[in-house]
## 1
Amino acid sequence: MGAAARRCWGARVSRLLLLWLAAGYAFLYAPIAYLVVFSFNASRMVTAWDGASLRWYQELATDPTLVDAALLSLRIAAGSATLATLIGTAAGYGLARFGRFRGRGALEAALAAPLVLPEVITGLSLLLLFVMLEQAIGWPRGRGAGTVTLAHASVSVAYVAAVVRARLADAGTTLEQAAMDLYASPARAFALVTLPLMAPALLAGWLLAFTLSMDDLVVASFTSGPGASTLPMVVFSMTRLGTTPEIYALATVIVAVVAGGLALLSLLRLRAR
Amino acid sequence: MVVLAVPWIWLLLFLIAPTVIVAAIALAQPADGVPPFTLGLTLDNLALVLTDPFYRDALGLSLKLAAVSTGICLVIGYPMALAIARAPTRWRDPLLLAVMLPFWSGFLMRLNAWIGLLRDDGLVNALLAWVGIGARHLLYTDTALYLGVVYTYLPFLVLPLYARLARRDPVLEEAAADLGASPLGVFLRVTLPLSLPGVWAGCALVFVPAVGEYVIPELLGGPQAQLVGRVLWGEFFQNRDWPTAAALAIVLLLVLVALPALALQALRRRPARSPA
Amino acid sequence: MTLAITGLGVRYDDMTALADLDLTVAPGELFVLLGGSGSGKTTLLRAIAGFVRPWTGRIVLDGTDLAPLPPHRRPVNTMFQSYALFPHLSVADNVAFGLRRQGLRGAALAARVGEMLALVRLEAMAGRRPHELSGGQQQRVALARSLAPGPRLLLLDEPLSALDRSLRADTRTELMRLQRRLGTSFILVTHDQDEALGMADRIGVMRNGRLAQVGAPDEVYERPADRFVAEFLGAANILVGELAPDGTFRLPDGTLLRTGTTGQAGPRLLALRPERLRLEDGPNRLPGIVVAQEYAGESVTTQVRRPDGSLLRSVQALDRGFGAARLAPGAPVTLGWPPEACIVLPAT
């Protein structure tokens, strides 16, 4: 009798765990659902429903500040992600394939540092670097999109390296050895085997770097200059004055793009299978 | 080795050099000019940051925010990670993706949602009134601040924790039950201790950014939420006091390096119990 | 301790893992469950331990039905195939795990742990972590840990399969010595017939979620219940024919064989163990031609083709060396055996 009750207790724990998970998802998604719903609100109120309308999407599309900032952010994100992918791949490849070499530990630590550094420190230190560089060698002249791109790339290198390294470590070296055994030179083996092997990691790393850049406010605020305001910077200054449905519309567009992209990716993966 | 030279030069330029520069400016004299300091070797800035109650309180408040938020994230996130790790294999990836998805949708956007939700006339207060707790002032309070931090960083805790829990060996849990451990005992004596590396990793990913957090206190917290990130930002942008900002950054960095070391020492000192 | 299983059925989704299974294990018995993969032997073990919930049936231990009890309430312990040692605990803490759950503390706990470690001769390893031990040592820790709480019944899932061949024989002896000394009933699962024959008081041969036969090792080997058991346990030459009421077995080509058994007339199978077939004339005889010989050091297996094309195997002990037993392929031979070597089996 008591024992039977105890077994039910075990089953109840599992059910409780699932309930907790569902509540966690509700917590994570309720604000997003709220954003999406109220972006279609007719009134300026963000608290009371006043009928459906596309008014805020119209305002969003015709707001030159937001549109310009979005275009600038896209450029910076694409540039910094590409730069970070190039350098991060070299670092990840080196760590995964070169085994023991002098300074390996230092490189690993240095690569991990940006992952565990508060943003304000990263932003401040990179700005001071740019200021000192300009004083010393006259480059970079002033600050703007270029310095933000460099700053974002410098943060993202660590993430790309981690992704690439994990992928290469998973794959092992037998495929490359097989290619070389079949008369491929090391360079050909790299191009024909290693690169395709890394391709998903490169894409994942690039996308991660792109998102980090699009989402960053603090590092961009430190390293940007007058006239070069990224989308988060503009949204931040708007938000400080109070939240508006226009921002909700922008959020909904971003959510739609992300969800659409993910759906496309999973569809491609299903096809590939 | 050429492959490695590029990342090395890159890290040297964008990680090591900037850190050295911050340290140098933390030791410099404030001055009127562009840039607003003259290089030197003074400990005044560091001494000021360490002794002035304003900065010390900011540091204390930040550490408290980070510690409490990390704790709350752990309480919310551990059962979530465990539930995902115990789900059937084909469900795990979608469930995990669902945890990460909010992270991809822009954190400023989600903070905007909370600003709308937490307003005095917002939906959360309407809900609180409806269930009978009664409406209260939420936005620009510590409640909003903690909520924002927990909400933003929860996925970062779940991810590494899940990775660890997914690799657990269910046979060990069976063995514990077989030896007489109740479901709670199995969790406390086997599942939890074996997941600790994931717990530490997840906690670090919440704690570190939370300590230096600038945006969330600025948007959700009240004016009283003078945290290190905000103070540093103010010294730099409003007061143009670069040496003090740099000194704050250095102190924050040292605290972040010292904390794990202290924690490790405490763990090592704890005597291992042995029945034999 | 007496374990009585009646009408046990276990289902996974829509697959039947165990069907209407009855089994009784006596106090102090070493019972071996033998079967191929997927035969249900591990499922049976897990049902007794409480890790799978039976669909029907009862598992009664000394008058208590275990079925409604969760694993941690059952006076039964398991030694897992992978050992399942807790990597974060020392050897001593692993052994102490079940004892602590029983409320044992302090000196009594230390004494019992010491006693168990002495039993498996690992006192010196008490402070080590499992990954610092060899495979054989880990196996002994797992054994000590599962025996420490003093289970009335110990379940062992392939306890020797992860060990090197050379270590297995010693460990087998060691396991049997411990079992006799402690008097604990063991149910041991294996797919290794040598292990089963060498260790068991009784063997249960499993097939498709059922017990095909239960009996002492020699009983199961010498009087298998059906063709499956005869071929699963050891090798068997199978001949098809008809049994006459007087015990004469008639092959399709008209050859008559004396079986020494009587029974209802009708179609039957005749199983002949290769080691019972001699390459010389006997009370029963079949002619044939040598196809090949396989030398195995202590014995040699000779394949003989009968005139109808079927093959028979005969194993000779080489107690006088290979030279005397060597035969060239194509040489005519006669296989001979006594009536009592005939195993008459149902036709299907």
## 2
Amino acid sequence: ISSTQTMYSSNRGYGTQPQGHNVLPDGIDRTSDSFIRNSKEMESVISQLHSRINQVTQGGGAAAIKRHKSRNKLLPRERIDRLLDSSSSFLELSQNFQIISLESYDKQQSLANVVSSSSSSVHFFYIQFKLAGHELYEECLPSGGIITGIGPIHGKLCMFIANDATVKGGTYYPITVKKHLRAQEIAAKCRLPCIYLVDSGGAFLPKQADVFPDKDNFGRVFYNQALMSSEGIPQIALVLGSCTAGGAYIPAMADESVMVKGNGTIFLAGPPLVKAATGEEVSSEDLGGADVHCKISGVSDYLAQDELHALCIGRNIVKNLHMAGNEGVNSNLQGMISDYKEPLYDVKELQSIAPTDLKQSFDIRSLIARIVDGSEFDEFKQLYGTTLVTGFGRILGQPVGIIGNNGVLFCESALKGAHFIELCSQRNIPLVFLQNITGFMVGSKSEANGIAKAGAKMVMAVSCAKVPKITIVVGGSFGAGNYAMCGRAYSPDFMFFWPNARIGVMGGAQAAGVMSEIEKSKKKKEGIQWSKEDEEKSKAKFVEAYDKESSAYYSTARLWDDGVIDPADTRKILGLCISASNNRTPEPTTFGVFRM
Amino acid sequence: SSNEKSNQSNRKIDKLLIANRGEIACRIMRTAKRLGIQTVAVYSDADRHSLHVKSADEAVRIGPPPARSSYLNSSSIIEAAVRTGAQAIHPGYGFLSENADFAQLCENEGFTFVGPPASAIREMGDKSASKRIMGAAGVPLVPGYHGHEQDIDVMKSEADKIGYPVLIKPTHGGGGKGMRIVESPKEFVDAFLGAQREAAASFGVNTILLEKYITRPRHIEVQVFGDKQGNVVYLYERDCSVQRRHQKIIEEAPAPDIMSDFRSRLGQAAVSAAKAVGYHNAGTVEFIVDTLSGEFYFMEMNTRLQVEHPVTEMIVGQDLVEWQIRVANGESLPLGQSQIPISGLNWCFHYSFLLIFCSSIALSKDQNTLDMYGMPLKPGYMLKMWQGDFCQQQEFFSISVLFQSLKLVCFCNKNSRNALSLQEISQFCISVRVETGVEEGDTVSMHYDPMIAKLVVWGENRAAALVKLKDSLSKFQVAGLPTNIEFLYKLANHKAFENSELETHFIDHFKDDLFVNPNDSVSAESAYDSAKHSAALVAACICEKEHTLLKKNPPGGLSVWYTHPPFRPNHQATRTIELDWENEYHDNNNSQNLTLSITYLPNGNYLIKTGENGLPDVEVTVTHLGEHDFRVEADGLSKNVNLACYFKDESEHIHIWHGLEHHQFKQKVGIDLLDNLESHQHRNRSHDSGSHPPGTVSAPMAGLVVKVLVKNGMKVEEGQPMLVMEAMKMEHVLKAPTSGLVSGLQVTPGQQVSDNTVLFNVKAV
């Protein structure tokens, strides 16, 4: 580099910099042990990821799919594929395997509930309980029983929220509600029209306590619909199956709704309940079929002959949205470059860069070199606070500011981060956080330097920045580092995990160390001798629990993120996320009080 | 005024009106332009945007679409000539070209008629009269009876005298209409009466002549040319033996396997025939050659420039349209008989000639338009038997209806990497010549002859010409209309044709080889396999084309969302394409559904599963070369693929050509297309809710009611003729579907009805 600089410095003057000055070097040694080990280990991690997804995309299993298809229905992903512009991409969110713990309710009672509800029109009673651990019942809920994601219809980005009726009849488990609300949150933030593909038996009754009463429970779905509608974000419901009780409000609250003749029903109470309540005997079609709602009640607006027709009407509704004057920057595509360059280095190698052992460090620039256009990255404050890498680049032609970790955060790195966030906020440049952080530097020197103050500045900046923020956890996400690097609590527009990533307040070993120190002093006070063996056992238990809870899959199953992704897809996903976030009109940022 | 007229006739033609349309109008204009002559086209409303109109310096509207109101309307044409100041009128072929009254009218009005004298047209137009004249001039005639006496007993005894088999033929009309072959005396009476009836119905004259029927005949016609000074030369012969029901399918020049003294005797006979009627300009004398005896007989003379004239042009290296104009100008023939390169023939220069047609109209022409045209466009028949043999009447209707509104979508290809456009073919090598009057996207009108194009190829010898012929045929790509290309390809490939085993029953003899036999399960199986493979290629090409379009013009400018392959987190995007294969082996030409599942592979290729056992998944690499053109690699084999798509009946029709294969698929309108067609579709939906009550008869197609044979309240038997309609230039008799009482009859003769109009109802009693 220095020789190049010398060469140009003599005649460069104050003109533009020479081309290629900002191209990042490859940055990896393919012969190193760590590269070889990582490649091998990540290969199995990725194949595990793909096999999980393969399982998840089977929905509720072959029997349920067969039953579903026999009703002339498409699977939720097929429905979305047919709504989307053909050959367009679809950014599916939180598609990963969901494991729901049922430890909180009594097995006997749940079975009783299941049996009693079997007379209703829904089909969620086909539940198989699996003994997965002592005194703990678990069951699988592929993709949480609901498919969500973003894709274009007639060149207009939409949020799709589709019940999977092959999974427990499309009923809402707590996680289903959480996923639905998360999709609505993204839609509201990015001003994406919402397309609800309704085919659901409503709330999962055995878990009503975790589904119904709280603020972020089922009722919030309709609250969100109302607020989004009031803000001019179109709400469109396609009723492709049953839509019972609470579910009935999804089409009813929608701006426009479509019903499929024969398959689509909307009612507050199904025929069995009606009979029980009033003695009236009525078929579900006569009670709440498409004819009733499109011709008599006016609950729905468009009558579709079959599912394909409904999807076609759905597309047409989006075509006619126009949303004149409500468009974000995507509509004028400021700053976009359409003929962008691909990175110079193979994106597949991201799989080998990401360490499965988080103690290993790596230069975040080798990662950035594989996600930005032409591997071109203009670094900001390169020589200061070097454990945080900041700079400007483009992803699929879209300008971004990137903040990545190259080690523990010091005062200087935090100040640099806050500065860079301010820059991007002023210029309305989306921020990408590449998290690989064990936390802020501890110790007396750091405390004396005011590390808490410096960290607070960065947290303040991250919290208040109104530009699109996207977080990718590529390694560790620990402690206050998670906060400063825009963890889930800081409402990034999107947040994804690499499968090797870990999240926690601290590492398992550190936590075990802290806990055993406390325990030891407690026991000492009580005069109990703690054997070395017992101490180690207790530590191991801690480490085990932390390990389990900090895994990417544990995180994604609880919706602490928007999905676990293949590192090789990082660039594409970032491109799509930035594009989706740019759908909104830029807002000016106002920061709070920075402690100086 | 007579002075002025004679002055005019001495003037050279500098502005020529072409009283025709389509390829022949374009053809004549090309020569006229080369000679510096201004051109005037005439057109009916149906042809407002046709190629011949665009090609002319000026164009004049002459009336509504029906030919009798436009191209057969002499006074409109004369008016157009007056209006534009043309001095001469070229009639082309068909329409008024062999109408003696029109030729006379042109001369009377002071226009040069680029064609023979009216008297020659008149004399040759009457078959009995022409034979008498020929007999007197010593031109050999087929033994027969051409007398006025039409009494059945006289005719029978004449037939017995000639000896069986005997051919019964109406004196007027042509094109095989009313012809009967009688093998033995006992069949004679029925055949004779039938021929009389048909002749009366078709031509209004029921006089009949008898001829010896030649069992193994060849048809050879001689091109003659005369000038106004009385010179007549012959430009050698064309063999047009390969026929179907007396209609020519392929012509070649010179006729293969004939001796040079036979050739000159034939030529001399043709010249004598022309001289006997004081002929000038271009004409063709047709002979029948008895391959058993080696004798030849005069059949008839066509007093016009024939549709197949380019075959002769290619062997003698002359422009016959130029000759026509020069002769019409009063010049002597450009070449004398000895100057016409007969030596060339000894080198065995060969030219093959083909006509490519829409087969559906070919079928409909069977009936009664021949007199209206003045001359039947002979190749129009060629697929008649084929359709008749294998198709139900009902299907014929559907094909014809299809034809009315269809556009010619892909007509050869613009991209020169594979198929060439017509112009390109013409320019690339003079040895292949394509004549056409249509362009891609044109509508082929129901009102006129369905010929799409003529293909002429030249080779140093017959075998070389045949190789080129097959190559050129394989590059013809026509979508949107049924054509006879595949049939012609099979014909050109046939061993017997290669061996010049030419005679008029050629197609009958080899029909099993030339036509699709739906009962041939081996061929059906291999056709199915090849259709599946083609369907996979279609699917891949559709995806690739979509990708290039999206890349160029991403909806909403969201290029990020339309990258290739389409992105899905942690899995691959897939899609399903359902194609209905138009299977000619299937019963009743039903289509067969093929479901293809396409996976977008990360490398940009497509993995295609046909969902059928036995056929492995195929990975396809596609490069989109141009609009219709692709280079496709599958299983290590790469080749060019061409597609053509058009919309019809709420489906997308897709044609694919690769190598020698051509398949046609239909795709139900997908979700995107529904967006565009939605309102249309819904309108239709409301339509079919009310289907007609039983016993209702509706018009099978748009047409004219000619006769109504029943009245309301009349009792009719099942199958009884009720009403006669004329549509697509043919008459259709609509019969009672059941026995019962007629009701709801609302139409009257002369009324135009549209497709599906309810005509009447028969209520069973």
